[in-house]
Amino acid sequence: MTASPEMAVSSANSTLDFDSVVLLLERIFVRHGTSNEVARTLALNCAGAERDGAHSHGVFRMPGYVSTLKSGWVNGQAVPVVEDVASGFVRVDAGNGFAQPALAAARALLVEKARSAGIAVLAIRNSHHFAALWPDVEPFAYEGLVALSVVNSMTCVVPHGADRPLFGTNPIAFAAPRADGEPIVFDLATSAIAHGDVQIAARKGERLPQGMGVDSLGQPTQDPQAILEGGALLPFGGHKGSALSMMVELLAAALTGGNFSFEFDWKNHPGAKTPWTGQLLIVIDPAKAAGQSFAERSQELVRQMHGVGLKRLPGDRRHHQRAKSSAGGIQLDADTLANLRELAGD
Ligand code: NDP
Ligand code: PYC
């Protein structure tokens, strides 16, 4: 692979097109031991997050991927094993590799089953997910399907009413087609804030809003460093977010055969950052539903929401940023680009 990533360079920022970012990231993954196929899948995911302004899971994550690969914690060459277990159930053993290649390997079978049975489940286990979740569901909605996915992560969230952390940041992502416009997509951590955003705030020296986390003594804190150094996060919405986080543990780990967020121990792999857990996807074919087309109905819901004054749907910010990046390129500051190039061995 060759790369000539810059479209234009200023002293402070560089503007790269999407394909150039993908190529640069691919080279980093391959240099640190992944197969070409895994590199391509992860690079597209990570560059897509950067393009959409999903910065907590964009190129900021590359040093974490690299240190994890170097630590031997994850198998960057893993070949997922797909099992067709029932009319509506597909299982994948990701082989201690990344979750996205496992999804890619099972995707065609999953869609075929969803279209024939009306609904199908994909249960991924023995997998590492270090990314945003919306890229896993949004493409199904572009194909007219409804998709829901959950993934658990690593112990850093105190269940509501408990004293110590147990749950992961456990995101839930949902995508549904609509007749006139981009699919409806939301993707949210069940913690009050994603762990990635705490790291970003710590790096920038910013304080967090109240109610996000506690320090090592269990006392409320707005200091991101105190959360990262022995503290923990809180679920969003008290007992409600906590119940959803519990549900994610059950669906993403217990139902797939993967680890709960508290079940793996990466102490012997210094540098390991990627949670070794599981992921569940549920895909529904709305063509099987009664009445008017689902996409028309979802369009009607959006129309009504706008009618009562809603200005922004979940996903709108990303799509706005995607359009901006497509027109003007992806901006990377000089330090970030230099770090990425160093990781690529340039
Ligand atoms: P945010 O709180 O930033 O956003 C959550 C959702 O709400 C998004 O769909 C967002 O849309 C939407 N939204 C935000 N603000 C508004 C608003 N004012 N009005 C309407 N909709 C709004 O996300 P999180 O911080 O909770 O999560 C960030 C990312 O971290 C996610 O992609 C998640 O998958 C990832 N993550 C991954 C984990 C893993 O284990 N792999 C663990 C935890 C988190 P929009 O995107 O358009 O802003
Ligand atoms: O931001 O919470 C997070 C996260 C955990 C694993 C990957 N991202």
Automatic annotation (TrEMBL):
Keywords: Oxidoreductase. SUPFAM superfamilies: L-sulfolactate dehydrogenase-like (SSF89733). It holds the Pfam family Ldh_2. Signal peptide: none annotated. InterPro entries: Mal/L-sulf/L-lact_DH-like_ah, Mal/L-sulf/L-lact_DH-like_NADP, Mal/L-sulfo/L-lacto_DH-like_sf, Malate/L-lactate_DH-like. Belongs to the LDH2/MDH2 oxidoreductase family. This is Lactate dehydrogenase.
